[in-house]
Amino acid sequence: xxxxxxxxxxxxxxxxxxxxxxxxxxxxxxxxxxxxxxxxxxxxxxxxxxxxxxxxxxxxxxxxxxxxxxxxxxxxxxxxxxxxxxxxxxxxxxxxxxxxxxxxxxxxxxxxxxxxxxxxxxxxxxxxxxxxxxxxxxxxxxxxxxxxxxxxxxxxxxxxxxxxxxxxxxxxxxxxxxxxxxxxxxxxxxxxxxxxxxxxxxxxxxxxxxxxxxxxxxxxxxxxxxxxxxxxxxxxxxxxxxxxxxxxxxxxxxxxxxxxxxxxxxxxxxxxxxxxxxxxxxxxxxxxxxxxxxxxxxxxxxxxxxxxxxxxxxxxxxxxxxxxxxxxxxxxxxxxxxxxxxxxxxxxxxxxxxxxxxxxxxxxxxxxxxxxxxxxxxxxxxxxxxxxxxxxxxxxxxxxxxxxxxxxxxxxxxxxxxxxxxxxxxxxxxxxxxxxxxxxxxxxxxxxxxxxxxxxxxxxxxxxxxxxxxxxxxxxxxxxxxxxxxxxxxxxxxxxxxxxxxxxxxxxxxxxxxxxxxxxxxxxxxxxxxxxxxxxxxxxxxxxxxxxxxxxxxxxxxxxxxxxxxxxxxxxxxxxxxxxxxxxxxxxxxxxxxxxxxxxxxxxxxxxxxxxxxxxxxxxxxxxxxxxxxxxxxxxxxxxxxxxxxxxxxxxxxxxxxxxxxxxxxxxxxxxxxxxxxxxxxxxx
Length: 685
Known about the structure:
- There is one protein chain.
- α15 (411-420) runs antiparallel to α21 (581-596).
- The termini are far apart.
- This protein has 23 helices and 23 strands.
């Protein structure tokens, strides 16, 4: 028994030793796997069950100078078709058609930028597409469809060029063959799938396999896509611009998906599906508004269902950008233009346009920039075709891009030049006989003053009030065109204002065939041209005493959580024009008397502040109609703002006086109310 027990114990010890060896080996293997080689195995594991996804950052918010929101964001979803998500057994055309059929059932419009009509008989639509779309189509024809012709370079494609090479129906046949569209598919299905395949093909240029198929899709469609096993389709969170005002469309501008050229210029900043600014301040302040995308790891099971999401980099929204615009004033200016033009259009001329600008004196800050007719940014995408074909051209920003002869609104510039150069003084009087002759000429070189009987003896202030062509023609003759242009340039005419959204430079007067045009240029009847914004900034420079500031729209930029100021406007004059106190007083009095005792007095009786103004009537070349031009400033004693208005085919500038009064009252009534509510020495919230 003792011996048997000893053997039993021995076997027990052996078993325990064996188990200890196994356990030790297991621990060693586990230690090696998890500690020594843990990073490697974890990396291998992640690679097999996770994918990296870009998380779109929200675009920055746009506000006016007082913090009123102009443009914000609305969270939404985008439907993307990604070839890389298809397996080797999946047919790309069939997968696309399934998605198209779902969208048709749900009434969802998908993106299709192939410049060809969507129904047979097919026709090219290249000219209707933008330059970028033409470039993309050209590259597609040159690279993907080389079989069309080996002798023709498809550069700067136009309808005419394409039609001379092949017909639209032939191109469609070629594309069906190229993309392997089954012959038994209907023309409608084939065209729809070809449009998507074209988009995917051109994206190979930027090395992406994904295409945003549809924007701003609803949750029901999302559920159908996720539950219906739509191969190649994925849904991602996105955002679209939300417009909190219908005003300032030309200023705010548009956004859109990045194109190939834009991506090629900034490959390290953007990805192929980013939204970027396309026009207006959305484009001008892109660097401030653009957020920084985040990254997250998506874990999925064997069935492709997402099991977890881990952010590796949090998205950072763009900055909040405050514009110099005053939204209330902007809306008032747009309404004033609309009212005036609508009333004028009763004569049957429905293609009139108008532009207005309001600039703060002493800063160059643009408080309002209105163009009529205008459009609604919230429906810009769907209404673009109609807008682009409207003969009234609502997409054209007349306030910054429209150039017009200034007419008599140029006379204050001539007055400053004459007084500062000493060719006249504030007491100099010139007798207006009604008809001015070029010295030494009795016939030929002459012009009539608008008052053919003449104004008699006038000093410079009276000449401004009465808009006397004779007086200013004589001053212009004494100054000469070069000196006139020197002052005009110092006032900012004939060159761009510096506004961030871009503008036309306008023109200065030039000699024609050796003829001295200075007398005509002096009262705005030569080849001067300016935008409404230039005219407003010119008047702001004048009443500021010569400090010329670049016109601008950027007030400040702060981080999305307002914890850091990224940019703060600190205006400085870009140049200074020497204007003596006596000169400034004489010019301002002339403009003030026009609104108090002159022709504009009836209109300005309802103005809440005293103002100075000047009208202009500029004849349109070869037409028997005039543009109406108007400039003003207020208050008279301490100018705060300058206003310029142009109405195409608006007749005399005096017809715009009530429009100007509406704009002035909108600004100064609001200012007075604010003072009453806040009282003195109180801070704004």
